[in-house]
Amino acid sequence: MSGTSRWSVGLALGLLLVGFASERPQPAVAKKVGPDDALVAEGRFVFERNCAVCHGKWGDGRGEMALGMVPRPRKFTSGTFKFRSTPSGSLPTEADLIRTIRGGLFGTSMPTFQQLSDREVRSVVEYLKTFSKKWLLPDNYSEPLTIPNPPNWLNDPAAAAPHLRAGKELFVANCQPCHGPEGRGNGPAAAELEDDWGQPAIPADLSQPSVKSGPEPRDLYRVLATGLNGTPMPSFLEATTDLQRWELVAYLLSLRPSTTAP
Fold first, then answer.
1. SS (H, E, C) 37-63
2. Which of 167, 151, 73, 149 is nearest to 111 (CA)?
3. Backbone angles phi, psi at 132, to 5 degrees
4. Are residues 135 and 166 in the same domain?
5. DSSP 8-state assignment for residue 257
6. If I label 198, which of 75, 120, 161, 183 is the partner at 20 to 30 A Cα–Cα?
7. Helix 242-254 to helix 217-226 angle, to the nearest 10 degrees?
8. Is 22 inside a domain boundary?
9. Is residue 16 part of a domain?
10. Euclidean distance between CA atoms 181 and 257, whole angstroms
C-alpha cells in the first residue's frame, strides 16, 4: 500500500473514531461550589453598608437593629435559607438569593434593595457564601425544581369551583392545625412552634395580600413544593401531586380579602 493510501485510510479511521466518541455521553462538568473570589471583596463592602446593621458584621443575625425584630434576621452562618426554588434541605440558587434581595420579604423588616446595581447584588450574594461552610460542600447543592405556570382554571371561577373544594379539604387536613381555620396563623398548634434555633416560628397569615415568599400564585406553589428550611413548614412535594398543590393554592388565594372565591 502506498504512503498516500495508508494516510487516507488512517484519516478515515480517525474521523470515524471521533464520530463514535461524540455520540458517547460526556462526563458532567463539576459545578463550581463556594463563593466567587473575584466578587467577595466588593460584596463585603455592599454587605457592611446595607446588611450588617440587621444581619450582623459576621452574618450571625446579631446586628444592632436585630433586637426585637420578629422574625429575627437570617443567620447566614447557619447556611439555612427559607426561600428557595431547590428541594428541602438544599442551599438556594443565586437567583433565589437575588429574588429575596431585590423583592424583600413582605411583612418583615427585610426591605427591597432596588437601588443596588446588578453587580452589587451579585457581589453581596457571593459574600454571603463566605459565612457558612455549607457552601463549600457539593452535596448541599441541588438543581432548582420546575415551578409550572398556573393552570388555566385558576382564573375561571366556574372551572375552579371543584378544585377549590378539594383545596379546602387539603388545607383542613394539612394546614389548619398551624395556620388556623381562616389561615390567619392562629391554629391550635401555632403557639408551640419553634424554628431550628429555638425562636418562635409564627405561621404565615395567609389572609394577607401577600406572603413572605411573594404575592403571586407561583410563589405559594414554590413554598408548598420546597418547604421552608429551618422551620416546621415541610415540603409537600412528595405528599401531594402537582394538581393538589394548585388546588391548595386556589384555596389559599380565596382566603385573601381582595380575591373573589370561585
1. HHHHHHHHHHHHHHCHHHHCCCCCCCC
2. 73
3. -135, 140
4. no
5. T
6. 183
7. 130
8. no
9. no
10. 15
Whether 177 and 209 map to the same domain: the answer is yes
Q: pTM for the full model?
A: 0.84
Pairwise CA distance, residues 21 & 103, whole Å: 47
Phi first, then psi, for residue 253 (nearest 5°) are -65, -35
Question: Domain check: are 221 and 126 in the same one?
Answer: no
Instruction: Assess whether 186 and 112 both reside in one domain.
Output: no
CATH number at residue 158: 1.10.760.10
- How many structural domains comprise the chain? 2
Q: What is the pLDDT along the chain (262 residues), one digit of tens a residue?
A: 544 444 443 434 444 434 433 344 443 334 679 999 999 999 999 999 999 999 999 999 999 999 888 888 999 999 999 999 999 999 999 999 999 999 999 989 999 999 999 999 999 999 999 999 999 999 999 999 999 999 999 999 999 999 999 999 999 999 999 999 999 999 999 999 999 999 999 999 999 999 999 999 999 999 999 999 999 999 999 999 999 999 999 999 999 986 444 4
- Distance from the Cα of residue 225 to its chain's centroid: 10
Domain contains 65:
yes
108 plus 172 within the same structural domain: no
Cell, residue 138: 457539593
The amino acid occupying position 205 is D
* Domain end marker among 107, 140, 173: 140
Cell of 48: 457592611
Instruction: State the residue range of the domain holding 78.
Output: 37-140
Record the cell numbers describing residue 73, joined without a space: 434576621
Q: Fill in the DSSP letter of residue 200.
A: B
